[in-house]
Amino acid sequence: MPELLLELFSEEIPARMQARAADDLGRLLAEALGEAGIAFEELRVFSTPRRLTVVIDGLPARQPERTIERKGPRVGAPETALQGFLHAAGLKNIDQCETREDNKGAYYLAVIKAKGAPTGEVIGKIVPEIVNGFPWPKSMRWGAGALRWVRPLHAIACVFDGSVVEFEVGGLNSGNVTCGHRFMSPDAIEISGFAGYEKALADAHVVLDAQRRREIILADANRLAGEQGLELVADEGLLGEVAGLVEWPVVLLGRFDEAFLEVPPEVLITAMKSHQKCFSLRDPKTDRLAGGFITVANLAAGDGGKAIIAGNERVIAARLSDARFFWEQDLKTRLEDRLAALDKIVFHEKLGTQGERVERLRELAREIAPMVGADPDQAEHAARLCKADLVSAMVGEFPDLQGLMGRYYATAQGEDDLIARAIEEHYRPQGPSDAVPGAAVSVVVALADKLDTLAGFWAIDEKPTGSRDPYALRRAALGVIRLVLDKGLRLPLRALFSCALQLYRNQRGAEFGEERGGDLLGFFADRLKVHLRAEGTRHDLIDAVFGGGQADDLLMLLRRVETLDAFLKTPDGADLMAGLKRAENILRIEEKNDGPGAFGAAPDVGLLLKPAERRLHAAVRAVRGDVRRALEKEDFTAAMSALAKLREPVDQFFDTITVNADDAVFRANRLRLLAQIRAETRTIADFSRIEG
Amino acid sequence: MAQQRGIEGPAKLAPKRSFQDLVLALQHYWSARGCVLLQPYDMEVGAGTFHPATTLRSLGPRPWNAAYVQPSRRPSDGRYGENPNRLQHYYQFQVILKPSPDDIQELYLESLYAIGIDPLVHDIRFVEDDWESPTLGAWGLGWEVWCDGMEVSQFTYFQQVCGIDCAPVSGELTYGLERLAMYVQGVDNVYDLNFNGAAGESLVSYGDVFLQGEQEYSRYNFEHADTEALFRHFADAEAECTALLQAGDQGADRPHLMVLPAYDQCIKASHLFNLLDARGVISVTERQAYILRVRTLSRACGDAFLRTRAGGFGDA
Lengths: 692, 316
Hints:
The complex is a heterodimer.
Chain A: E1 4-10, H1 15-35, E2 42-48, E3 51-57, E4 66-74, H2 79-89, E5 98-102, E6 105-114, H3 119-132, E7 153-160, E8 163-164, E9 168-169, E10 172-173, E11 177-179, E12 188-190, H4 194-203, H5 210-227, E13 231-232, H6 236-243, E14 250-255, H7 265-276, E15 279-283, E16 288-297, H8 306-331, H9 339-342, E17 346-348, E18 352-353, H10 354-372, H11 376-385, H12 393-397, H13 404-412, H14 417-425, H15 440-459, H16 473-487, H17 493-508, H18 520-534, H19 539-546, H20 554-568, H21 571-594, H22 611-632, H23 636-644, H24 647-656, H25 664-682
Chain B: H1 19-32, E1 36-37, H2 52-55, E2 64-73, E3 89-98, H3 104-114, E4 124-128, E5 131-133, E6 138-147, E7 150-161, E8 164-165, E9 171-176, H4 177-185, H5 206-224, H6 227-247, H7 259-278, H8 284-305
Parallel strand pairs in B: 1-2
Antiparallel strand pairs in B: 2-3, 3-9, 4-6, 5-6, 6-7, 7-8, 7-9
Helix pairs in contact in B: 6-7, 6-8, 7-8
């Protein structure tokens, strides 16, 4: 069956956009073909720095015949309306229409059998629309034209079943011609089908498939490194990027002076990667970085790559000497001597400088330290130094190295290892999969950093909305949650936020009032829910325990959820829950009739006549004391066991008593009894929110 | 005359041996491709883009092709002559092609060939790098061009300048001449560049020409520039720019009479801001405000330029 080959040939597409663009092109084509009723067998997409290619196999020669229904005017509508409709539908006589009924009466319906157009013709309409509306993250105009593309678009090859699909878009006429490698094979290539196209490109020094380019780069890099007794420092992100920078990957190995190896390896790796897109090499014998690098050229050069290697070696040497210069310069200044410079760096316009921030972190760390079992002096000292590397030359050049450089510089100036680690680790965890720091001092500073951020941005009303979270506040909250749960910390969040706000208030005045922390605890409750859900905890149990309340103590909330989960799995728990839910349901219905709070008063003991209701009443009173004592001791298991004693009385009550008695007085009194049970159980969980 | 005295024609230029021949080779190349060959603008600017031949001429409908060398001053990049490749004063070679021709990449690559960079031996790459000038209210998409891993040029399709959409779009090529020369001469320290192509005693190096200036201007930029005076000059330039734009304004339907003098004051304000920034007397929050003030001037100049002949005013 016929095949479609489409290639959009342009100037160099940014590496990071290529794969997504090829996928978008394939998806948009598939959608448009689907809307036109055209099925196909297989669609594949490819990208290189200069081209996006789609090949679709198994297309029909013609679009199948389709039945199109078009709704017309009401029966009895004026003649002009009918004529207009017939004209638009391509019909002559209203008798050719069917009539249908809807709730407003009868109307005409034209049922048109549309003959299928040749598939090529349909494609010729689809592609220009896709090109005109292509979803590039950033696009541009060029020359005097109006078309937008990521960079100037030069040619569109569109071949269906061996012939050109003719169309025009943005002044470009479709054709069947492409070009090979920019330098090595710049001549035109005529295209008739995918197999020939892929082969001709390969002959013209273009590897069409990005995955294949990755494989070539990886294999050649490993081989070259191996020949020197070295191994590649793997980097998937860099590999993908480099595969998007070349059509004809040629892997080369260069050298640099081993004297540079005195600089920390992360610095060397980052310098080679971020500026030069080069891979680092490691010596497997020592497991240390080696004085070499891998670069990927887009050219099989006439001299075997000598000039390219020499050029890259010079640039790498210059980059590494910059890095070494920064390293040596930075080592001359102690971290505490950098603190003054932090006063000049604005953290946020409304939240003051990094210097002010460090002052707050120190006090907050002191506050938190006892809760985590850390030494307050150590915690404060770590907090004091934790941002100092932001004004080092190295972090100025490579912002990704923040924290890590702080650790190196702290170690170099003889700080305790705990302090050095805390400086590095206080940014963690950065997301759901990032490791949580281990040592208590690190945990304290990590918490202080996040709580200060959250309190500050909350106070100036920069809260996350929808998909917008420019200050990564959700991540900060998740970080706190993970630290708390992972370390089993009892952290009174309400008190800590109030302390954080007080620190802002001391520096910046009254607008950081207590009330500005507002719904921050609610935000935490939401984040905790999201986190627990992701961990597989039943969301209804979370809702039941949260019950609209606030997450002041995350650890206790989690314990309650866990205990509730365990309790519900026992026969007592499942049974009691059924009874409690029944009580909740009855109350909900009757409160609708009598109004909320109608049964809030304590039941009148004198009106409890039947044994089952007297027994239940007695049980509730007995259980109440037990539950409260257990909760005071935060012994949720004991609280649950106490609740379990309600199971039998509740069952008996519902078996033998009609709540909605004919006598209104008895009815109200029984409902009060149920309301009392509800109130007692809610101190543990809102059972009405539990499913099943 | 030239023949009589045996002065070599362009074909004999030696861009791989001499800084000035590199410049001459580029000038010759772009001149032969129809560019107006201009001389540097006689004001202190941070980049060749500030030259009115680029900023203002990239606005409006009229075609415009020009090439020129522009000394560029970046006060905060000064290193007292001690860094092998950082300078507070350096040269850019600037080409502006409006509208950007379809073969602009090929034209650029041939210019590299003309200065001795053979793309079948060297690895030339177009690496994503979008350009933005907050003070000029300008941005564009393009690349930095790499030669064997070294950035040798900036390549930009202007989308907006002075806050105004560019139609047609100009292609801007900026060659960092010192870097390029270091590369083709195979030199690791900018001050070691051979400037005049001579050998032995008559050799003049880049350091012979510029080292003293780098040292003196670094002292000036970082230590001695009178910041109070600079603040005053900034305010003066800003006021004068606005006043000139007002004085030249005859209403929206009549041509503007004084854009270029006003734009000079805008350039001046921009450079004064750079000097103040290098002196470290502008805080981060103030920084934004100053950038915005310069942008306001450049936008007003751009709007006014569209009401001049060169800006296409009165064109059918």
